[in-house]
Amino acid sequence: MPRILVISPNWIGDAVMAQPLLQLLRQRHPDHPIDVLAPGWVAPAWRAMREVDTVLEAPFRHGALQLRERREFAARLKQRGYAEAYVLPNTLKFALIPWLAGIPRRVGYRGEMRYGLLNVIHRDNRAAPRPMVSFYAALAAPPAREVPAPSALPRPSLNVPEVQQEAALSRIGLRMELPLVVFAPGAEFGSAKRWPTSHFADLAKIILRAHPQAQIALLGSGKDKPVCDEIVAAAPGVHNLAGVTSLGDAIALIAKANAVVSNDSGLLHIASALNRPIVAIYGPTDPKHAPPFSDVATSLWLGLECSPCKQRECPLGHHRCMKEISAEMAWEPLQPVLASH
Predict the structure, then answer these.
(1) pLDDT digit string (tens) for 226-244?
(2) Residue pLDDT, tens place only, 133-185
(3) Percentages of the chain per state (helix, strand, coil), in multiples of 5
(4) What is the pTM of this model?
(5) Is the peptide bond prior to 308 cis by the omega test (within 30 degrees of 0)?
(6) Which of 152, 177, 192 is the last residue of a domain?
(7) Which strands make up the sheet holding 34-38, listed edge to edge?
(8) Residue 196 Cα to chain centre, angstroms
(9) Domain range for residue 173?
(10) How far is residue 156's CA from residue 326's CA, in Å, rounded to a whole number?
């Protein structure tokens, strides 16, 4: 039976927003197993997608060409009988793999010098980039100038069985029967996307005053631990799990959460795909480009004259787009969500 190969982006949020592409591929070829080639740090997100048959962890170093290693890996892929490959990263080195593996149909965006390596080439409009869900989902159809809006596409969807949720909470020492609020204070892209730690701390104190039994967990990578330490110092009683949990456990905790408060980050999009109630905080990025899709979701964005600047650091030095979103503004949409638990 022919198989389909999807080559994952390197970012967790992008991987989640590519999930509707898999839904469309499954609709078109219900009998073709879908494999995903992904970096190890992104693989747990793909394992939570029902459409994925096998996740193959990429053995390559980030940024390195490693031509010999790619050729050897492609030879192994050739044995799996792929009819199609969808190359989601825009780089040359990932387009090499399906070409070296002799996969007949190789689909992706034009990217960097990929003519010949890909034989079904899509093009985005740099002046008006496609929303991320539309960007990836478009690959399921022939190349076109116009693509469906996110509202016309399947929503990103992840699935974590309750037994996995219970196991994750037990490992970390949280209680299944108590309300759980997850904060995601980090942002891999840069500090401009981070809501101030003082605001997260103020929101934690507001929540704990209203709901003393609530558990507030801070999630993120080891890089986010200093930021999370600042929050815990200002709001004792909050659980700092940054760098402590695996991504798989973080996904399971988010699946159990009664609410999630997050910067524009990969964990935001995981929460969205798990359909958790979300308060999403945007500053230098545009919420219309990569919004949350949960049934209950609020995007806080001031729309200042200088935003979206899409910069890693505030180019004007004032960071008003995030500082002027107060803890009370985030608490307002959280109140009815937590009152129902």
Answers:
(1) 999 999 999 999 999 999 9
(2) 999 999 999 999 999 999 999 999 999 999 999 999 999 999 999 999 999 99
(3) 40, 15, 45
(4) 0.92
(5) yes
(6) 152
(7) 52-57, 34-38, 3-7, 82-87, 105-109, 120-122
(8) 21
(9) 163-339
(10) 29
